[in-house]
Amino acid sequence: MIQKVTTLNQFIIEQQAAFPNATGDFSRLLHHVGIAAKKVNREVNKAGLVDILGQAGTENVQGEDQQKLDVYADMTFINELRASGECCAVLSEENQDIIVFKDGMCRNAKYIFCMDPLDGSSNIDVNVSIGTIFSVYRRKSAPGEEVGQQDFLQKGVEQVAAGYVIYGSSTMLVYTAGNGVNGFTLDPSIGEFCLSHPLISTPSQGKIYSVNEGYYVNFPDGVKKFIKYCQEKDEETKRPFTSRYIGSLVADVHRNLLKGGIFIYPQTSSHPNGKLRLMYECNPMAFIAEQAGGMATNGKMRILDIEPENIHQRTPFYTGSKNMIDKICWFLKNS
Ligand code: AHG
Ligand code: MN
Ligand code: MN
Ligand code: MN
């Protein structure tokens, strides 16, 4: 029996049909995100064979040494977003200020795009999974008006869509537009993302905790107590849990989304407000977590409710299975 294959483009069109007054703008934007993902995937797969590894010799606004693939992914997504004509400006981890598209169609486009073009850069040269993370909002300014940083300072609850690409043992694009989370696996033989994980639902309890324990000494007491809780033996709650930490947010979050678990990146001595960036790492991952039945918090409040003050701001980040988030919040509150 021939199995029905639903490509990303077919899925987008089917989803659009559910919105009677949809114009197809978002569908076209997402189509170009898929093209950019395929182009980056092509370079990731060749990494090691062509001169795409190693440092670009430049530093980004974060003070990080940019990897060549950081720069390639950034340029590729920006070019595709401009080509879509459906995006008027982009906020990227790799650029100090927003990139405004002033040409023709783009000036009047209604969407703005936040992205971490290449997440997990420290893993690029050692062949460990990396990814791209993105978030789509409606602009606040009127079409044709000047787009500014103010357009981007919106709470995560305002997201139109959020998603990530994981360049791993296979390449997947996972996204939500507010109607659940769906995962598409790239079939290189036909060059299409095909629906492989419909309506992902994350377990309410998991057995995996993901944290860089190298920073333990400066963790908040509540985090230290939660880690100890995970390591204690207890039949009823099937502890001790398993520690898994890849060092690429996309890979750690994707594994925990499918299997259940909790990802923790609290404030540390070198990052007193946490290391992960609200607009293009935490908000998109929080939207996905909640749409899959999980949670995402900064330890005190819902990530999606945080009022952003600057486009590159950082936040402590806890995300994953509902029961595990509740547990760590209890420890944080009672320590
Ligand atoms: P990026 O490569 O986009 O700068 O992000 C790296 C982030 C994230 O992917 C990961 O969860 C975290 O950095 C790992 O940080 P540590 O190496 O401090 O654990
Ligand atoms: Mn970086
Ligand atoms: Mn990142
Ligand atoms: Mn990055």
TrEMBL record:
So which cofactors does this thing need? Answer: Mg(2+)
Q: Which GO terms describe its molecular function?
A: fructose 1,6-bisphosphate 1-phosphatase activity; magnesium ion binding
Question: In what residue span(s) does the Fructose-1-6-bisphosphatase class I N-terminal domain sit?
Answer: 7-198
- Gene Ontology biological process terms in this record: fructose 1,6-bisphosphate metabolic process; fructose 6-phosphate metabolic process; fructose metabolic process; gluconeogenesis; sucrose biosynthetic process
EC number(s) on file: 3.1.3.11
**Positions with a binding annotation for substrate:** D119, G120, S121, S122, N212, Y245, K275
Where's the Fructose-1-6-bisphosphatase class 1 C-terminal domain?
203-329
Q: Name one Pfam family in it.
A: FBPase_C
Pathway noted in the entry? Carbohydrate biosynthesis
| Binding note for cofactor | Binds 2 magnesium ions per subunit.
Q: How does it assemble?
A: Homotetramer.
Under which name does UniProt file this protein?
A: Fructose-1,6-bisphosphatase class 1
Species assigned in the record? Odoribacter laneus YIT 12061
The beginning of the lineage is: Bacteria, Pseudomonadati, Bacteroidota, Bacteroidia, Bacteroidales
